[in-house]
Amino acid sequence: MNSIQNLFRKHSTLKNILLTFFLFIINFSLFRVLTPRFKELSGGIDIPDITVVFSSTNIYELYTQFGPAARSYYNYIQLVDLFYPLVYCIFFALLITGISKRLSSSKVFNNIYLIPIITAIFDYGENLLFFIMNQVYPAKFGLIAPAGYLFSMGKWIFFTSMIVIALLLLIMMLFYKISGKKLDVIE
């Protein structure tokens, strides 16, 4: 773990944070371009990835409602989703690490970079299970559906935590800047 932490600490420069933010925005924008077509093909239903709450018992009904065209199109969306968790993981890990190392040299923030990594792991698990469900349909999903539900809930819990932590750290950094206390500026 220490080598991963050191990697993020070493590369959490303003340049790298801005570069990964740019990649994050591109990936996010691709989703915003692709999902309306899916919604059109599925009769107004969102992709399961952005549905914050779904039940493992009704996911089969959801895939049925998608229809064949939407299920086929969902494969293209999942290609983009191969990169999205990696991009936001690196961006938020660099952002959180960059701010936290400037806020405090104590060990209080040492493992905070793990939140984006855990989020991405849950997201990749969710993506894999949704991909499997999409491929095996119309066969019943069995234990894949509840596992997909758990990964989805884990993703949203950690994603929300990641955003809140990043915002709190940004607010703390601004507070220190405004108050005039010594704080190193992001390189």
Question: How would you briefly describe this protein structure?
Answer:
This protein has 187 residues and is mainly α. It is 74% helix and 0% strand. It is built from 6 helices and no strands.
The count of strands amounts to: 0
Proportion of β residues? Answer: under 5%
Radius of gyration: 19 Å
First and last CA, distance: 24 Å
| Number of distinct helices | 6
Shape: elongated
Give the averaged pLDDT, no decimals: 88
Percentage of residues assigned to helices: over 70%
Molecular structure report:
The protein is mostly helical. It has one domain. It has six helices and no strands. The two termini are 24 Å apart.
Keywords for this entry:
6 helices, 187 residues, single chain, mainly alpha, elongated
Give the SSE layout:
Elements: H1 2-11, H2 14-41, H3 59-80, H4 84-103, H5 114-136, H6 144-179
Helix pairs in contact: 1-4, 2-3, 2-4, 3-5, 4-5, 4-6, 5-6
